[in-house]
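Chain A, query sequence.
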Amino acid sequence: MRIETPTSRRIQKARTALVLDHPFFGSLLFRLKDCECRSIQTMATDGVSLYYNPDFVETLNAATLAGTLAHEVMHPALHHHVRRSGRDPKRWNMACDYAINPLLVDAGLNLPEGVLLDDRFRRMSAEQIYNLLETEAGQDSGSKDEENEPGREGSNVEQPPAGKANEPPAPMTEGGIGQVLDAPVPNKETPTMEEQAREWNIAVNQATTVAWQAGKVPAGLNRTLEGSAEAAVDWRELLRRFWSETIPADYSWVRPNRRHIWTGLYLPGVVCDGVGEVAIAVDCSGSVSARQLRLFEAEVRSILEGQRPERVYVLYFDAVVQKVETYEAGQRIDLNPVGGGGTEFGPCFEWLDDQGIRPQCLVFLTDLYGSFPPSAPSYPVLWASTGSKKAPFGEVIPMQTA
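Chain A, predicted structure.
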């Protein structure tokens, strides 16, 4: 039986006020169950529960409490609880707060003093903001940033107090008014991450309809939700899927699929006995950050180790092909860009033609700002794009959130 307290009654009144004045946020709040939790400093949510510290709640007036509740429910509405993917919890909380707060301010909600607000982050996803914060932290502190990596002793994440193991860890974020926790681990009673995200998509659609009928849809809501959906796209999975669809493979019972052995199912595994030649073109015009380059390099290296191509050509280009490195089967691939001029994609195709090379596939790492050749080649082309432009042919994988 639930015991009502003065604090829980205040939260209920704030919920009701939101339903009347800001129905989008108010209707979403019905998906979260209140849970008093003194091991956190302010509020927190994992997409299932709304944890609150009663001492913090009592510092807020009615209008600010309503704004804080709206802030908290926007975390799962934007899938922040299922999108951290190993990022540092404290910096992820900051990025999520920076993404949410402008929307709430534009909607006319009150927030506590000192919250994280910065106009340069408007219309950016939490992933984009996180990357900027990470880059700035690296520039400011250099090696000190390593101390705050997840799992290190210097990590700014408080663990639950002794005797309260069931309560959530609480990242302490300066200026933060509500933390986003990872979604609960799936079990018999808790759905999978995909199912949790799908349920929140349905809830957001319903809340949007309610707000629209009341004539009170928050300004910029659709743009924010669309940006969130784009940011949730996993470019690594798309890259692997492209490679698996364009590089031939066979199946063999000699090497069973290890993913299914634990279930008692013995299925044939994929066998790649060499896939010919692959080409990778790296835009050296300065549009690719060092971090994006390293992420791309690590992912490509992992994929190619599994596919075992006969040869890999790496083309470094801007307006011309500046340098070409050739890697034989089994060699480690390291990307070292050179150049820095304008961007033209045609010279990459021309170089391959001049050398008589028809690769299994050609993968570009670029922002897609440049001139394209008049026609598509006979082989598959993938554009791993750090920008938002489209290509006249081939498949584009957005890496702007990487």
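DSSP finds twelve helices and 14 strands in the chain. The two ends are 46 Å apart (CA to CA).
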